[in-house]
Design brief:
alpha/beta, 5 domains, eight-stranded antiparallel beta sheet, seven-stranded antiparallel beta sheet, 26 strands, elongated
């Protein structure tokens, strides 16, 4: 597979640096706990910016004979080296308010020292530091290239954090966590790189300076207690790094006060500033850089750094699995390409389309036909092909997947020589404006080939929908008179008929069934239930609703020659039936909404009633329903009244097309009557859900486009604020 430059960069650098990134992430995770622990320690001081040097040393001196050195450590601890009243040296953490001893200085834990040394140099001194510096740069490039891949997938910077369709666990969370942590990982990598440059003195603050002092001019006559020094009264402890006391009373000795921004030489007799040297902006920058990389002084930032380290470990794990899945060839051809009658060509950027192609491959093989499967890029004209099946995804802005880029050019130059049948199946997401564009391009090229005969119109599948694929697959299997094989192990459940209700004198022969699962299963309103009626190998799919008792609400119309509807109509309460649940992820109640409009006709009302049952927060829900006859309403009136009484349905509107007592109307007429209400449904938390016949669905969409306006209507479609399930 030929990868794009960004993907190649992202993948190759990640592979090269993976083992080092694992080591750095684990040690970085360990190190992130220590700033948190320090911040919560009794020794940590938060009020250093309110206490002057003068105030502090005055209080320390009441407890000790002499101070040797004061250090404000990077972890916020105030460390003092002093002589006690017995003349013994003591090193302790001090309370800045009263100067009292909080505890003796502690050695750093062996785990901290080991982790830090591994993190800095891999225990390999200079060579290790070089490797760490290089890995930091690589991590930066990996993060940036990952960001460009996200941009390419999401189409623009404004969509960087927009909705991502779940089609694979590792792929989904790799992207989600990547765009969540990219900013923090860029900071980690940049600060790490800068620290490496500092260690090798490529970036070097002004440290090698010397003070120029004329000791002959020093005034040693005036004696002032150090706590009365003007400079000590002005400076806060928060500004201090270290204060070194003079060793003797000779005038050549002095106080050395190292601050965060400068270093001062102080006359030990009167506190006069003998010399002052500014460190410059670079020193401040490097200190900030250190704090950003280590999390020093901030619990929140330390937590973020720790979680970012975990994220890097997850990136490596999920990235490896994504790569394996993308490159892995599950199927090996049993037959030579030249002797095969069926040719399957696949285009897939991330490997998700492969599993559908493999299912087609297995089906053909199980029916004792010779089949050959290959990537689209590797197309070449074969002699004995009687059927060509192409399954391909679309990548980015309507572009072909990496393993399909060459196909159209190759096919135009050298098409199949003999007559053949073909079908094209496209995979994509309606979230993107160029939905299945490459599949459409392929289909157009094949349509122009005089030797080709299209089996059926191109099938476009949204978000890897198993249901949409199954519909195409069933048609294709019947066309070829094959025996079908399941896409996966069928999870068949047993259901008990709780009740079955027939609408009296309903010319449409509608009826309602409530099913109770024999054991606990997970399903949602909008999912599908698949029945396989007796004397049939084909499944029939019906949209379902979920009521308050977690039972299935199913609405059907009995057809005179309908195998499944007649079979279900004959069932009696307490009888048991076997079926399977199909997850219809594209037609579930939105997680967050402020205003929801439910539009249906006939038996399409059942899943929408289930949506209303799920409205536990009592948000605004309006329902529009159309039927031919008023008798049909009696099937659902008790449920509707219950939902209205529970404030789960705000408003219910019904119309009838063949009732003698009512004006002939359809649900689209209700939309026109209430067009002002529909025009207000353009904010991001408004949704429209449509379920019922395809004719009704098409009419409703056309009406909505006119009422709302074409531009706003298309925006609602693109943002998936209009959800459709028609049959």
């Amino acid at each position: 597979m030929i990868l794009s430059i960004w993907r190649y960069c992202h993948l190759s650098l990640a592979l090269v640096s993976a083992i080092f990134l694992i080591i750095l992430s684990i040690t970085g995770l360990i190190l992130s706990f220590y700033p948190i622990n320090d911040k919560l320690s009794q020794f940590h001081q938060d009020e250093l910016d309110n206490i002057t040097i003068s105030s502090f040393i005055k209080k320390v001196q009441t407890h000790h004979h002499e101070i040797i050195e004061i250090n404000v450590l990077k972890n916020g601890f105030l460390a003092v080296n002093a002589l006690d009243k017995q003349g013994q040296t003591t090193k302790f953490y001090a309370n800045p308010k009263n100067g009292e001893n909080l505890g003796e200085l502690k050695k750093e834990s062996s785990l901290l020292v080991l982790s830090r040394n591994i993190h800095r140099s891999l225990l390999w001194k200079k060579n290790g530091r070089i490797i760490i510096g290089i890995v930091s740069i690589l991590l930066f490039v990996i993060a940036i290239s990952g960001g460009f891949l996200v941009l390419k997938k999401q189409l623009s910077i404004k969509n960087f954090y927009s909705k991502v369709i779940f089609d694979d666990f590792n792929k989904f969370w790799h992207l989600i966590s990547g765009r969540t942590f990219i900013f923090f990982i860029v900071i980690i990598s940049l600060t790490g790189t800068i620290m490496s440059l500092e260690r090798f003195e490529i970036i070097q603050p002004k440290n090698n300076f010397s003070h120029t002092i004329n000791y002959d001019e020093i005034n040693d006559k005036q004696i002032t207690p150090n706590h009365e020094f003007k400079i000590f009264k002005e400076l806060k402890l928060s500004e201090v790094v270290r204060i070194e006391y003079p060793f003797s009373s000779f005038k050549e000795d002095h106080y050395t006060v190292k601050l965060k921004t400068k270093e001062l030489i102080i006359n030990q007799y009167n506190g006069a500033i003998l010399s002052s040297i500014e460190f410059g902006y670079l020193k401040s920058f490097l200190d900030t850089n250190y704090n950003l990389h280590t999390g020093n002084g901030s619990i929140i930032w330390s937590v973020i750094l720790g979680v970012s380290c975990l994220a890097i470990l997850f990136f490596i794990y999920s990235g490896v699995l994504i790569t394996i899945k993308r490159r892995k060839n599950h199927k090996k051809n049993k037959y030579d390409s030249q002797e095969s009658s069926y040719l399957i060509l696949v285009g897939s950027e991330n490997g998700n389309t492969n599993r559908f192609a493999e299912h087609v491959f297995d089906t053909i093989e199980s029916n004792n036909e010779k089949v050959y499967i290959e990537q689209l890029n590797n197309y070449k004209p074969l002699k004995n092909i009687k059927q060509l099946i192409i399954l391909t995804s679309t990548y980015g802005l309507g572009q072909p997947p990496s393993n399909a880029k060459k196909f159209i050019k190759k096919f135009k130059k050298n098409p199949l020589k003999s007559s053949y049948e073909y079908c094209v199946v496209g995979f994509g997401s309606k979230n993107y404006p160029d939905f299945c564009k490459y599949a459409l391009d392929v289909s157009e090229v094949l349509n122009e080939d005089v030797n080709g005969k299209e089996i059926s119109e191109i099938c476009l599948i949204n978000n890897q929908s198993k249901l949409e694929y199954q519909k195409w697959f069933d048609y294709w299997v019947n066309y070829n008179k094959f025996e079908s094989i399941p896409t996966q192990k069928e999870d068949i459940h047993e259901f008990r008929i709780l009740n079955k209700t027939q609408a009296k004198k309903d010319p449409n022969n509608n009826f309602k069934i409530e099913l109770k699962p024999s054991r606990k299963i997970i399903f949602r309103s909008g999912d599908l239930i698949a029945f396989k009626p007796p004397k049939s190998n084909e499944e029939r799919y019906y949209s379902i609703g979920k009521n308050n008792e977690n039972n299935i609400l199913l609405s059907l119309k009995k057809h005179d020659h309908g195998l499944c509807s007649m079979y279900l109509d004959e069932l009696k309460p307490k009888e048991k039936i076997r079926a399977r649940i199909v997850n219809n992820i594209n037609f579930h109640l939105p997680i967050e909404f402020d205003n929801l409009v439910l539009i249906s006709n006939g038996t399409g009302i059942a899943p929408l009633l289930g949506m209303a049952f799920e409205n536990i927060e009592r948000k605004k829900v309006q329902m529009y329903w159309g039927a031919k006859h008023t008798q049909t309403l009696k099937l659902y009136s008790n449920i509707i009244n219950q939902l209205i009484d529970d404030d789960k349905i705000t408003e219910f509107n019904d119309v009838y097309s063949q009732s003698k007592k009512h004006k002939k109307m359809y649900v689209q007429d209700l939309i026109i009557e209430n067009q002002n209400e529909f025009k207000s449904l353009t904010h991001e938390k408004s949704y429209i859900m449509i379920c019922g016949s395809k004719e009704m669905g098409s009419d409703v969409l056309r009406t909505l486009s006119k009422v709302i306006g074409k531009s706003k209507f298309e925006q609602l479609i693109d943002k998936e604020q209009i959800l459709i399930d028609t049959y």
